[in-house]
Specification:
This protein has about 150 residues and is mainly α. The chain contains four helices and two strands, in the order H-H-H-E-E-H. A two-stranded antiparallel sheet has the order 1-2. A hairpin with a 4-residue loop joins strand 1 and strand 2. It is elongated and about 125 Å long.
Length: about 150
């Protein structure tokens, strides 16, 4: 029978050598093998780690004491404008009010404007006298003197 006599719907000979089911079964088997190996490695790793942790000695207290301390967190202002207004009010109250600083020694806080009035009435206090300078030591009689020239 020649090629012209063969019917058109008959498959070619090389198509009969490919086994699609066999290839698919091999791929599924390989995928299952890889998945099983992956799970086995993870399990084995966890078992080894738990045994290793169980055998580790307890850390020394000195090593724990020498651990670096965590840095303190920055104290950030939630509302800087409100904080500044509050600060300005506190400062204004301190500058315009009377208060005891030290009741036992009689030290008080007075408003700045009143302090200016008192200084204007009484004047500034006199400065303390300067300490006297020591007298220069006289040169001994007959001692040679040097000139700086």
């Amino acid at each position: 029978m020649t090629d012209h006599d063969r019917p058109q719907h008959e498959p070619a000979e090389f198509d009969s050598e490919i086994h699609v089911r066999g290839i698919f079964a091999a791929l599924v088997g390989l995928t299952l093998l890889v998945a099983f190996a992956f799970v086995a490695m993870i399990t084995f790793s966890k078992v080894l780690k738990s045994h290793s942790v169980a055998r580790d000695p307890a850390p020394l207290p000195v090593a724990e004491a020498n651990q670096p301390r965590p840095r303190p967190r920055a104290a950030l202002q939630a509302d800087p404008t409100a904080d500044m207004v509050k600060f300005a009010k506190e400062e204004e109250a301190a500058l315009t009010s009377y208060a005891w600083v030290d009741r036992a020694s009689g030290v008080v806080q007075i408003p700045v404007e009143r302090a200016i009035e008192i200084v204007a009435e009484r004047g500034l206090p006199a400065p303390p006298p300067l300490p006297e300078a020591p007298a220069p030591v006289p040169a001994a009689a007959g001692a040679p003197t040097r000139s700086l020239q």
